[in-house]
Amino acid sequence: MVARRRLSRCLVLTLLTILAATSVSPGSARGETTSAPEADDGARVVRETRVSDRVLDLEISSPALGRIAMVRLLVPAGWHERARRDWPVLWLLHGCCEPADYRSWTQFTDVEEFTANLPVLVVMPSGGRAGMYSAWWNFGLGGAPDWERFHVTEVRQILERGYGAGARRAVAGLSVGGFGAMHYAFRHPDLFGAAASYSGLLNTLGAHVPELIKGILVREGFPLWLALWGSEHLNRALWVSHNPYDNIERLRGKPLYVSSGNGLPGPFDPPYRLDALESAASVSSQEFTRKLRHAGIEVTTDFGAGTHSWPYWQQALRRSWPVLAKGLGL
């Protein structure tokens, strides 16, 4: 009887040990005994999940969003639990309406392989179904969701205070995330040293682009699209304040990269495939780069055939790396 009790006790202790190893509290995954790092507004990590040797998922309780949201980290070689080194940080933003959300870059591209030998901490945050990388106007009331604050304040502070993120940063994104990259770069020029957009809508007040944005919002379950930035006519100043095209001077001196296909079949497409969304992204991106060059602001571009799809964005990340690396001081 005593032997059985001892055996049962051993089994319980073994199970508890396994649970502790696989479901860790913030801090313990990094071998720390201190409390989890918090942002100034109280945003904090409520759970960490080690997906693989280099992939770490964070569940963050966010006052800016009024809920929990996810961030995936791709840590560099040499990053480990008790490291105190500060790493350059590459932010990768996904596009609108992608079910894979924060997992999309690692699911659809070779970013894990590409960065294997790079001394960079890669941050891939959730952007919501159609968060537009913005603080929503909410008819003048403000409040959640504020995706901009979640990313550039809450996540940034948490990563700097507990995950080895340094002060050298670059941001890149695809589709709506391409808009997000340029949006964050001009609204926070002191935070991001370089920016890259792949198939982004970089002139949100260009021909038919407001209608495209409204259509995306309605399709994704936000019929009151005015909650984002209001009316492009009645609230034009608000739209302008979020439009990369209207704020190019705040990008001057920053390494920039812009790419897009033209919606016609390219090397990664079957014959005869046409893509109206990529065509719209091409027009918007080229309007933006023409204005940059007219103002004497340098930008690296890559325009050609191709559609709105992941093989092109994977290629664009690799091609844009020299620009992003320059902004990271590498």
UniProtKB/TrEMBL annotation:
One of its GO terms (molecular function) is hydrolase activity. The keyword Hydrolase applies. It holds the Pfam family Esterase. SUPFAM superfamilies: alpha/beta-Hydrolases (SSF53474). Residues 1-29 form the signal peptide. InterPro entries: AB_hydrolase_fold, Esterase-like, Mycobacterial_A85_antigen. Keywords: Hydrolase, Signal. The keyword Hydrolase applies. This is S-formylglutathione hydrolase FrmB.
